[in-house]
Amino acid sequence: MRRPDAILDPMLDAPAATLPSYAADGRLYCLSDAAGSAQVWEVRPDGAAAARTAHRDAVAFVAGSPVDGGAVFGRDAAGDERIQLYRLPPAGVAQALTAAPKVMHGWGAFAPDGSAVAVTANARNPAHADPVILPLDGGPMRRLREVQGPHELAAWHPDGGSVLLAAAPRAFESLLHRVDIATGASTPATPGGEGWRHQAPRWRRDGEGFWLLTDRGREFLGVAWMAPGGTPRFLHAPEADVERLEVSPDGDRLAVVVNLGGWSQLRLLDAATGQVVAEPRHLPGVIQKLTWRPDGGAVAFDLLQPTRPGTIWLAETGQAAARLLFAAGAAPAGAQGWAAMSFSAHDGRDIPAFLIQPEGPRPAGGWPALIWVHGGPEMQALPNWRPDLQAIAALGIAVLVPNIRGSTGYGRAYAALDDRELRMDAVRDVAAARAWLARQPEIDAAGIAVMGQSYGGWMVLMAVTHYPDLWAAAVEYYGIARWKTFFERTGPWRIGHRAAEYGDPLRDAELLESLSPLHKAAAIRCPLFVAQGMTDPRVPPQESEQIVAALRARDIPVEYLTFPDEGHGFLKRDNRRTAYREVLAFLARHLLRER
Predict the structure, then answer these.
(1) Residues 6 or more apart from 554 whose CB is under 8 A from it?
(2) Is the model's pTM score more than 0.90?
(3) What does 441-460 look like in DSSP terms, one character per residue?
(4) How far apart (Å, rounded) are the C-alpha atoms in residues 578 and 561?
(5) At 143, is the secondary structure helix, strand, or coil?
(6) From the CB of residue 564, how many other CB atoms can be counted at a distance below 10 Å?
(7) What angle do CA 266, 36, 374 make, to 5 degrees?
(8) Which has the closest alpha carbon to 171: 501, 569, 456?
(9) What is the arithmetic mean of pLDDT over 8-30?
(10) Torsion from C-alpha of 305, 388, 381, 59, nearest 10 degrees
(11) Contacts of 348 (CB under 8 A, 6+ apart)
(12) How far apart are CA 42 and CA 22, in angstroms?
């Protein structure tokens, strides 16, 4: 058997380039983790690139200025998600715009003249993200109005007089409000009525209306046009979610990304009619962000592939295919593709999934297997770069990645199939995934494990407590052990939104207790590996500590790994190396038979 380090290092050391953003002078910014964590890089037109920041903690985003060659970026401290903002001039070092380490700043938009940015900040109360204006010359931040709950700054009006503020009281609902810069007065910008999403508004240059993504009256997000306070008029509405939207500098074209079973497809649309005018070819993968070149002659985008970390591509006007602009490193050898497939659930429903098969001859007893469950739950497992899953496959373990009911990307009805009292049906999907694997002749039915993070970690704990005989091993990162203690300690800005999804901690206390795996910890029979970031503001460390203590009290094998400088996700390469190395060794001990 190959050593875990020899398998992991080539996968983990391959650097990524993601989240591109053009500045007004044509320089392109992106994030690259070549130095160990995501930092701001500047990419020249010839593809040459250089780092512009060098921090231990990861940069969360970078946004190019609309008036010069500078940018604004944000980063937190040790994964605590309390983003601080920085101005990056065209040349020289970054300058701090905020210095409030207990405050979360949510990115929004540049003022049309580039003199300020509109963002959100929860300085007044941790539970409420107020819209604020932050001058870039070092002037004081000004709150526009007080709001209740989490909000995002969605866009700044072309005349500079107002901003669009987005509220998302629950999953699959988002509303836009227009806030006057001078007075703070707020008026609805989207129609009344609950239950629809209104996202990614992009103003037309004359300010008479905006394009947006909405699913109003539909199963899927589509591209629509509307005047503030009016009703959206759909321009491009395929039977699949349109997930990204950016308007060309001249306002004549829209660049969009369509989610086709998890795979991204770039399309260019006529902005007036929604007609598809081009579909630039690109390799299969996932696009996270689009950005128009200031001259309008090209769209840059990142592309994350199952076999390679993120790279930056350019789709130029008149060219049938996009071209690679910047790769932070070479593609690692030995990475396996993700094959789309599906399996039947307990109620006969088809559950979409991806399968990663190990390379080489199948062992006599079949490959052991791992089921990886995504977080969310309003998320989708996408065929992008996962060095941990690739390393597991290289170890000789097949990996099944299901999009169990409740996942996004397959319509509103599918996403609602796990709501509240239906939550156990999603757990049954995990058991059904295991049953499908066990029926495959190339799989060792006695060697199947389950793994997940965050909500996926909760799914792992539910699977091993409700179906204890099915699993040879389990791995969970920062999963919820008990909903009561989760709601008591999670970030206050998350409580309302999470209660709408999972159940109210007071009104639905009995339901939430029945869905808390901590109460059934004695049923767990397989070895468990737990990892936790100690600054996690979403799933506090107590959740992991409770399940670990419960298993140790019952002499159930459990390994516990913590990181003092990580939050909800392991973002630093050295910490990921430690976590993934331990996971590979754990899975090798419990799944791999003597060869």
Answers:
(1) 521, 522
(2) yes
(3) TTEEEEEEEEEEETHHHHHH
(4) 9
(5) strand
(6) 9
(7) 55
(8) 501
(9) 95
(10) -80
(11) none
(12) 10
Contact present, 465 and 524 (Cβ < 8 Å): yes
d(CA 67, CA 542): 47
Please give the structure tokens belonging to residue 62. Answer: 């970078």
379-246-108 Cα angle (round to 5): 70
In this model, does residue 376 exceed pLDDT 90? Answer: no
Report how far residue 212's alpha carbon sits from residue 196's, in angstroms, rounded to the nearest whole number: 13
Q: How far apart are CA 437 and CA 351, in angstroms?
A: 13
Angle between helices 423-439 and 455-466 (to 10 degrees): 70
Domain ranges of the chain: 339-591
Q: How far is residue 474's CA from residue 452's CA, in Å, rounded to a whole number?
A: 9
- Name the percent of the chain in helix, strand, coil, to the closest 5: 20, 35, 45
Residue 580 has which token pair? Answer: 């993934």
As given in the structure block, the two tokens for residue 349 are 């429903």
Question: What tens digit of pLDDT does each residue of 179-235 get?
Answer: 999 999 999 999 876 789 999 999 999 999 999 999 999 999 999 999 998 999 999
First to last CA, the chain: 7
Q: Are 73 and 86 in contact (CB under 8 A)?
A: yes
Rounded Cα gap, residues 185 and 180, in angstroms:
5
- The alpha carbon of residue 84 and the mean position of all alpha carbons in its chain are separated, in whole angstroms, by 20
pLDDT confidence bin for 499, thresholds 50/70/90: low
Diameter over CA atoms, the chain: 73
Bridge-based pairing of strands 473-477 and 443-453 is parallel
Query: Quick one: pLDDT at residue 594?
Result: 53
Q: Which of 416, 393, 421, 390 is nearest to 405 (CA)?
A: 416
- 285 within 8 A of 322, measured Cβ to Cβ: no
Question: In angstroms, what CA-CA distances link 39 with 35, 50, 280, 320, 543?
Answer: 8, 10, 29, 32, 31
CA quadruple 276, 280, 282, 285: dihedral, nearest 10: -20
- Tens digits of residue pLDDT in 102-131: 999 999 999 999 999 999 999 999 989 999
Cβ atoms of residues 506 and 488 within 8 Å = no
Convert the pLDDT of each residue in 74-102 to its tens digit: 999 988 889 999 999 999 999 999 999 99
Residues with Cβ within 8 Å of residue 485, at least 6 apart in sequence: 542, 543, 546
Residue with the two structure tokens 């309008």: 296
Q: CATH for 339-591?
A: 3.40.50.1820
Residues whose CB falls within 8 Å of the CB of residue 501, separated by 6 or more in sequence, listed in order: 170, 171, 377, 378, 419
Residue 64 near residue 23, CB atoms below 8 Å: yes
Provide the pLDDT confidence category of residue 495 given band limits of 50, 70 and 90: low
Q: In whole angstroms, what is the distance from residue 521 CA to residue 12 CA?
A: 33
Percent of the chain with pLDDT over 90: 83
CA–CA separation, 212 vs 170, rounded Å? 19
Confidence of residue 595 (pLDDT cuts 50, 70, 90): very low
Rounded Cα distance between 88 and 587, Å, is 44
Joined together, the tokens standing for residue 487 give: 């709601």
> Cα(322)–Cα(282) distance, rounded to whole angstroms?
6
DSSP code for 421: G
Q: What is the pLDDT of residue 2?
A: 63
- Predicted local confidence at residue 195, as pLDDT: 83
